[in-house]
């Protein structure tokens, strides 16, 4: 074999490798997003593991064949006593996400570390979602940066408290459901992912209309004249089976804990904390407070440094993520936008009618339950008027950068310098 032949073969092999890498660049970029996010979230967090680690002992209980805890630490006041056993109020999937850490690193898992990890994975998932929505590489990258560093997701994921970790886990599965919806569109898998998200945060089950609308061409034939043939039941059954598995598991989980299939855990909590829930767990009178926090509530201002202080009661999404304004350009007449609103509105209304406002938080954390649909609308709004593969306009980049700077300041103010006010 001649030296010349070997050189040619070597050159061809290198070209093949480079060609494959070029075609798979998005996998490398997704990993870069994960790595960057993990490092940033980890080092901008409070430091150490959160004390509010309800899911950590629950994960250990699962591995021990239990669904109850053996002890009730004094600082975990949201454990319910039923039939002589202590139960975690919240749905259990976030605890399941901690099991790999226990198997790899041993007992007493670090819930904050898990939150940072799954938060970083979620940012990469958003990148894949944007790839399904737009051909513009620039928009894909900018939207991923917006979500990862220009929304309250950064703060929530970096803390890892049980309430926040539940949002992170729910977002992860819900975003995956959207990736599948804009991809291969397998109803059963979509249903499973929605069910997993539901078993992290119960209100997200109300986003089901989004998936029904987006899959409508699979189950509804508008051109068929025979009314009996207009509806194809198979996709609906598969979607329902996927979701239904976790609905039934939730019924069973509740029955084992509280002798009823209903989600009474939160109702019991509301009765034990009447100062938070003066009119019960849900009531129309709570809506105005939620609307004020979500849409209008500003930070606090001071004559002393740092002059602007985050209110931990919550702040307007228009302040924490100014780029959200682009949802108004997404329209409502196209199928995708209509489907997004069909999910956002019912999920938001349930949150707005809830007696709690999110407790100590940066921004309005309940919005994470419908953030995946907001991201789709923002992307659609920005993409409107952009030519194929054209760069974003100056105002798009400006608002995204401002959103990132605001969340950077908020995370550092709270986690590193303690500059915040719980109320106000």
Q: Which keywords apply here?
A:
two-stranded antiparallel ribbon; mainly alpha; globular
Please, could you describe this protein's structure?
It contains 18 helices and four strands. The protein is mainly alpha-helical. The chain has one domain. The N and C termini lie far apart (80 Å).
Round the Cα radius of gyration to an integer and report it: 23 Å
Determine the fraction of residues in helical runs and give it as a percent range: 55-70%
- When the domains are counted, the total is 1
List the quaternary state of the chains. single chain
**Biggest beta sheet attributes:** 2 strands, antiparallel
Number of strands: 4
Strand order within the widest sheet? 1-2
Secondary structure class reads mainly alpha
- What is the average of the pLDDT values? 91
Short summary of the structure?
The chain is built from 18 helices and four strands. It is mainly α and 424 residues long.
């Amino acid at each position: 074999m001649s030296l010349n032949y070997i050189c040619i073969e070597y050159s061809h092999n290198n070209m093949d490798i480079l060609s494959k890498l070029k075609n798979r660049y998005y996998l490398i970029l997704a990993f870069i997003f994960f790595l960057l996010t993990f490092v940033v979230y980890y080092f901008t967090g409070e430091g150490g593991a959160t004390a509010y680690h309800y899911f950590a002992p629950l994960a250990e209980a699962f591995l021990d064949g239990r669904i109850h805890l053996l002890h009730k630490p004094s600082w975990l006041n949201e454990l319910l006593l039923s039939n002589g056993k202590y139960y975690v109020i919240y749905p259990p999937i976030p605890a399941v996400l901690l099991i790999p850490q226990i198997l790899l690193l041993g007992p007493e898992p670090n819930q904050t570390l898990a939150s940072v990890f799954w938060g970083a994975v979620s940012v990469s998932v958003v990148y894949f979602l944007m790839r399904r929505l737009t051909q513009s590489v620039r928009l894909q990258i900018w939207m991923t940066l917006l979500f990862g560093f220009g929304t309250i997701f950064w703060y929530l994921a970096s803390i890892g408290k049980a309430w926040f970790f539940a949002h992170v886990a729910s977002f992860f599965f819900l975003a995956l459901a959207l990736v599948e919806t804009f991809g291969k569109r397998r109803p059963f898998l979509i249903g499973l992912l929605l069910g997993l998200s539901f078993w992290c945060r119960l209100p997200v089950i109300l986003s089901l209309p989004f998936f029904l609308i987006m899959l409508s061409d699979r189950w509804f034939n508008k051109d068929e004249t025979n009314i009996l043939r207009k509806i194809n039941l198979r996709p609906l059954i598969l979607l329902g089976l996927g979701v239904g598995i976790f609905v039934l598991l939730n019924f069973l989980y509740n029955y084992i804990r509280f002798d009823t299939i209903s989600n009474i855990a939160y109702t019991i909590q509301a009765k034990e904390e009447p100062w938070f829930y003066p009119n019960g767990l849900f009531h129309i009178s709570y809506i105005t407070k939620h609307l004020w926090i979500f849409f209008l509530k500003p930070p606090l201002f001071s004559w002393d440094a740092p002059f602007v202080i985050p209110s931990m009661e919550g702040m307007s999404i228009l302040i924490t993520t100014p780029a959200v304004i682009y949802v108004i350009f997404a329209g409502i007449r196209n199928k995708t936008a209509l489907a997004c609103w069909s999910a956002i509105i019912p999920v938001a209304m349930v949150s707005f009618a809830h007696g709690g406002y999110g407790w100590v938080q940066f921004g309005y954390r309940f919005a994470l339950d419908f953030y995946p649909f907001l991201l789709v609308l923002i992307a659609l709004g920005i993409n409107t008027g952009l030519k194929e593969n054209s760069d974003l306009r100056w105002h798009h980049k400006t608002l995204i950068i401002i959103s990132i700077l605001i969340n950077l300041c908020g995370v550092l103010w709270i986690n590193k310098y303690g500059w915040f006010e719980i109320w106000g």
